[in-house]
Write a structure and sequence with these properties.
Elements (H helix, E strand, L loop, with lengths): L6 E8 L5 E10 L5 E8 L5 H16 L13 H12 L18 H18 L10 H12 L4 H5 L9 H20 L26 H8 L4 H12 L4 H6 L3 E5 L5 E7 L6 E5 L6 E5 L2 H13 L16 H11 L8 H15 L4 H8 L3 H8 L4 H7 L5
Antiparallel strand pairs: 1-2, 2-3, 4-5, 5-6, 6-7
Helix pairs in contact: 2-3, 3-6, 8-10, 8-12, 12-13
């Protein structure tokens, strides 16, 4: 099918007061050959350059499937839930990656957004038209969610959810993102959640796992588990990043760029290169002497044909297995164990005097996430501040 051509017209309309108003309008033909239009706004408020840019943008969206060519029927909530999941978990065209609102979301984020959609459907009903939901409706929805009136949607899922205050705020942010995407797609005129702000409440500082406790923890572990946990604690990798890291390979980031990934023992300073399964970003992480020794021993003991550092560890029961190792080592459990491993490494880099932007980049998240979720005052810093450091 040939590309659709979108034209830009300058129209005029006589108001009830008798005043003549000029406005910009986009015009194209649908699959049946019928003319479809979209009004951009008044010529006095939108320049010709801006209108031409909007024309090019809308033409791109139609031809990449990100905007509807045919006007069609208005979407109901149950129809939109399916439409949203299909669109947000894939790219229809490489150019769509350049549009912030249209970027692909991870499978984990898609699951969380789908839970929010379930709540919306239970509250409004499956036949509620998407474009009829107002800011007042949004307020009523959040009130009902906070009051625990939408538990049925949660019970229908295979996963267990607990609606804490932070969970409520998270669903508010998800709803804002979902309707923001719908607005960018032209499915609705305004985002009913657009004026809601729901930042996460600050939690307690992350538990810190000292190097001494970590060495005690991995002492009884098998070689793959020693390497897996060392990648989390000594390199700050997320558990899935550590589990899937190859010794050497290729991976494509979210921008379509290909990178070498693995453990580079031959570099002047040993390093790890990876593309995060969570964010799709490429990053390079330094390897210190203790981690290098563990990785070298793991490489020497690796079975023939294995190209994964943590082979044969699977994603199943990672927390339960870690708890078994903690018990075997005679240690006390840490809350959110794998997050604590990463936080401990980031705090070490902070104490080492590295720039904030540097260790945040090594961790694979932004400075804001680093400040709110990972770095915190440590006992070593308290000791130094009080003059009692050894």
């Amino acid at each position: 099918m040939s590309n659709v051509e979108v034209k830009l017209w300058k129209q005029k309309r006589k108001m009830a007061s008798g005043k003549l108003v000029h406005y910009w309008q986009l015009v194209w033909k649908d699959t049946s050959g019928k003319k479809q239009t979209k009004t951009l706004g008044k010529c006095s408020e939108i320049t010709a350059t801006e209108a031409k840019a909007a024309r090019r943008d809308h033409e791109l969206k139609i031809n990449t499937g990100e905007a509807r060519r045919d006007r069609g029927e208005r979407l109901r909530l149950d129809e939109f839930r399916i439409y949203y999941q299909q669109r947000r978990t894939r790219y229809t065209e490489k150019a769509s990656r350049l549009h912030k609102t249209h970027q692909k979301i991870s499978p984990g984020t898609a699951v969380e957004h789908d839970m929010t959609a379930r709540y919306l459907i239970q509250h409004f009903g499956p036949e509620k038209l998407l474009d009829t939901i107002t800011a007042v409706d949004a307020d009523d929805f959040l009130t009902a969610l906070a009051a625990g009136k939408l538990e049925a949607a949660r019970i229908q899922t295979s996963r267990e959810y607990e609606l804490t205050e932070n969970a409520l705020r998270k669903h508010c942010r998800h709803a804002k993102a979902i309707f923001g995407w719908a607005r960018a797609m032209g499915l609705i005129i305004a985002n009913p959640f657009g004026d809601f702000a729901a930042p996460s409440l600050p939690g307690p500082p992350k538990a810190q796992i000292s190097r001494e406790d970590f060495r005690t923890l991995i002492a009884p572990a098998t070689q793959p588990w020693r390497a897996f946990l060392a990648l989390c604690r000594l390199a700050g990798l997320r558990r899935e990043e550590a589990r899937t890291l190859p010794w050497s390979g290729q991976a494509t980031d979210k921008f379509g760029q290909e990178h070498w990934v693995g453990v580079d023992f031959e570099a002047e300073h040993t390093r790890i290169s990876l593309v995060s399964a969570k964010t799709g970003h490429h990053r390079v992480v330094p390897v210190d002497k203790e981690l290098e020794a563990i990785l070298t021993a793991t490489f020497d003991a690796a079975p023939a044909g294995s190209n994964r550092v943590a082979h044969p560890i699977t994603r199943n029961n990672l927390t339960r297995k870690a708890q078994e190792l903690i018990t075997a080592a005679g240690l006390k459990s840490w809350p959110k164990f794998y997050n604590a491993l990463r936080a401990s490494r980031e705090n070490e880099w902070k104490e080492g005097g590295f720039a904030e932007a540097t260790y945040a980049a090594w961790m694979g998240h932004g400075i804001g996430i680093s400040r709110t979720n990972y770095v915190c005052p440590t006992e070593a810093e308290f000791a130094r501040a009080t003059g009692k450091a050894a």
